[in-house]
Amino acid sequence: METARTEIPALKRGCRLSTGAESLLLIPEGALRLHGPGKRILELCDGKRNLGEVIRQLQGEYPLAEESKISVEVVTFLRGLQEKGAIEFL
User: Which residues are within 8 A (CB) of 81 and not within 5 positions of it... i.e. 6 or more apart?
Assistant: First the structure.
């Protein structure tokens, strides 16, 4: 499924990021361990920024990474979480 950069990613109701030392996404069925920039991506998915804004913010924070790679990885990560019922696109 093609993802439009104007879609707004947000955590679904009942899902939240852990506040502890370990990077976890808490979902109604349990918890998902976040690796790499996963936690930062989800912090940016606040229901206000669209996907393009999330990607541009990450490109600014990771200037040595290829822009196209960031875009692909963010979309793939969020679509995977959407399939698990943790993310929705508004």
Answer: 25, 32, 42, 87
